[in-house]
Design a protein that fits this description.
With 171 residues, this protein is α+β, with helices and mostly antiparallel strands. The chain has helices at residues 36-46, 104-115, 163-170; strands at residues 2-17, 27-28, 56-77, 80-101, 121-122, 129-143. Strands 1, 2, 3, 4, 5 and 6 form a six-stranded mixed sheet that branches. The chain starts with a strand and ends with a helix.
């Protein structure tokens, strides 16, 4: 069974990025792609949301290489500020393809928000600037991989796939 859905597609380039893993303490390790929560946060920021909006996100992409950067990190505990040198893992030349699915009015609001930005876009840390190469409406099709009538599905770029959607594939 195949269904089509209107989605927003983003092509994003970042010269460098760190999508920090939350429990990496000795070094700021990075995920290879931005987590769904990071992308949803960007969408909510662009529309200046005052509450969470339901949306589904797909992210795929690649990077040329990884490098390490040595930085001073500031820790704030009540009135005390301490510093610590930390190794930051960063990705170089990141190319992302992001699809966002939501109610059509919300997609239009996000699209309008990106067309009328008042500041630069960052994805990951505040200093991880992002260049929007393309923002467009497109159609995505959902394919049931258990349907015998479907052809093989090929994936051209690394992608996150939720465990809940891969369970049958792995067992």
């Amino acid at each position: 069974m195949e269904s089509r859905k209107k989605v927003l597609k983003f092509n994003i380039f970042q010269e460098s990025a760190c999508y920090k893993k939350p429990f990496s303490f000795k070094a700021a390790e990075t995920y290879p792609l931005p987590p769904y929560s990071t992308i949803k946060g960007l969408m909510h920021k662009v529309i200046d949301a005052d509450r969470p909006y339901p949306m589904e996100v797909s992210v795929q992409g690649s990077y040329e290489s990884k490098f390490n950067s040595f930085q001073t990190i500031y820790f704030y505990k009540s009135k005390n500020i301490t510093t610590m040198p930390m190794n930051i893992h960063q990705l170089f030349n990141v190319k992302l393809i992001i699809h966002v699915s939501a109610e059509e009015k919300l997609l239009e609001k996000i699209y309008y928000g990106f067309q009328n930005l008042n500041e630069v876009v960052s994805l990951g840390r505040r200093e991880d600037l992002a260049r929007l190469d393309n923002v467009e409406f497109t159609w995505a099709k959902q394919v049931d991989i258990d349907d015998d009538d479907n052809e093989a599905v090929s994936i051209k770029n690394p992608i996150y796939i939720p465990k809940s959607q891969t369970y049958d594939l792995l067992h």
